[in-house]
Amino acid sequence: MTRSSEIPIPKSAMRGITWPAIPDMTGNILLALLFQLEQSQWWPPERLRDAQFRQANSLLDHAFASVPYYTKRLTEAGYSPDTPLNEETWLNVPLLQREDIQQAGNELHSRALPKGHGKTHKITTSGSTGKPVELLSTGLTSIFWNLITVHDFFWRRCDLSLKLAAIRYDRTGGAPYPNGAALPNWGSGFASAVPTGPANFLSIETPIAQQAEWLARQDAEYLITHPTNLEALIRHCTDAEIKFPKLREVETLSELGPPHLRALCREQLNVPLVDMYTTQEVGYLALQCSEHAHYHEQSENVILEILDESGRPCAPGETGRVVVTSLNNFATPVIRYDIGDFAQVGAPCDCGRGLPVITKILGRQRNMIKLPDGTSHWPLLGWIHTESETRTAQEIALIKQFQFVQKTRQDIEVKLVVGRPLSADEVERLKRLIISKLGYAFDLQFSYHDNIPRSASGKYEDFLSLVKD
């Protein structure tokens, strides 16, 4: 637990008072919530679950009364406002699918948002295929987003007085190379409550060599970026002998990171890598434990379920699909939403936190490889870059970037960025290697590119399946 002596003095909004600080209203709300999270993370699981169900009951009653989609859907499922929530009655609440959100449209919006939840704003997800999902969010949900952002840095005992650099998707277009954007603090969550050092932000669309040059100029202690971008950055800096002597830690977000990336970060940058688990639809789902590589669900923000094929909760060691409920979005209630991810349940953590554990976060369902016999599995493609086997691939061809796109259950396009054109013999050898790793004799079509772009939100996925179940 973060000791009180390590927590910075809050930012005071009252003239003449610096300590004890008196923050403004927004800062007071955030600090009050932060104080509660600092306590509740240590609650036993049973107490956390009881608190979640009390909040979920309030959310369901609101949705039943003011959201046309849920009035009909919950009635059909046998739910009424006097239904007590427990483990069994909760499982009777129907799952929400991506297609349901797309088809329901405004029927998913509340007709009577509770007073005090703030203004609504639109969230549009970056779905890689099909129509993007659109939701309404509120000022309150933004407060919870900022809250867990601050909680994350406190949790890891970061020195907030130092400098933060971020290389990520730039929605505004205001952070291009060579300067990026200079920010006065580490984000809106800190602005009203806790003083920090400066932050600098660069668009992730910047070429890797320029990213490295920019990062060297920042001389920052902390870095946030996407996993695939981090790997490319590390490998470029290793080859170019670029060092970051002040760097203390790297945090990744938004994508599934390859298993070897933690070791690569430690070996080449001499700093630890931490990861977070978020979605655009509901915000933070889990943060990495401060003492281990696994994740703790953020139970104060969401109910996160990992379900087996029959819809029952998975036991520790089992893998299932991720279903989430936002506990604080009353504008567009997102209740038991199947987000398309898969994860593995972990055993209780010896750090002492009662927050449930996720051992592994696996690929999204749309990124699972589909075999002709109807089965699916996650294609582990990190072998192309792992140190133990890179030589095998690099002996065939210098692969700078790759992406597999499954077109049918038999056909996969292999997109490559290579140092030079491949000979016919190299193509055949690479095909044999890929087939041996995928475990099936797919028909492979190679295509060559100068660059393989990220999705609209800055994510990069090394395997995409366009095959519908």
Overview of this structure, please?
- The protein is of the alpha/beta class.
- The protein folds into two domains: 1-159 and 248-362, 3-Layer(aba) Sandwich (Rossmann fold), CATH 3.40.50; 369-465, GMP Synthetase, Chain A, domain 3 (2-Layer Sandwich), CATH 3.30.300.
- It is 29% helix and 22% strand.
- The strands form four sheets. Strands 4-5-3-6-7-8-9-10-14-13-12-11 form a twelve-stranded mixed sheet, sandwiched between helices.
- The relative contact order is 0.11.
- Mean pLDDT is 89; it is low at 1-5, 127-131 and 385-391.
What percent strand?
15-25%
Number of domains: 2
Envelope shape: globular
Overall pLDDT level? 89
Strand order of the largest sheet: 4-5-3-6-7-8-9-10-14-13-12-11
**Major sheet summary line:** 12 strands, mixed
- Indicate the CATH architecture of the largest domain: 3-Layer(aba) Sandwich
Oligomer: single chain
Radius of gyration: 23 Å
Number of strands: 20
Instruction: Predict the CATH topology of the largest domain.
Output: Rossmann fold
* Unreliable parts: 1-5, 127-131, 385-391
What share of residues is helical? 25-40%
Alpha carbon gap, first and last residue: 45 Å
Structural class: alpha/beta
| CATH class designation of the largest domain | Alpha Beta
Tally of helical segments:
12
Record the SSE blueprint.
Layout: H1 25-40, H2 45-66, H3 68-76, H4 87-91, H5 98-104, E1 120-124, E2 134-138, H6 139-155, E3 164-168, E4 181-183, H7 188-191, E5 199-203, H8 208-218, E6 222-225, H9 227-240, E7 249-252, H10 261-269, E8 273-279, E9 283-288, E10 295-297, E11 302-307, E12 319-326, E13 337-345, E14 357-362, E15 369-370, E16 376-377, H11 390-394, E17 399-406, E18 411-418, H12 424-438, E19 443-448, E20 463-465
Parallel strand pairs: 3-5, 3-6, 6-7, 7-8, 17-20, 18-19
Antiparallel strand pairs: 1-2, 4-5, 8-9, 9-10, 10-14, 11-12, 12-13, 13-14, 15-16, 17-18
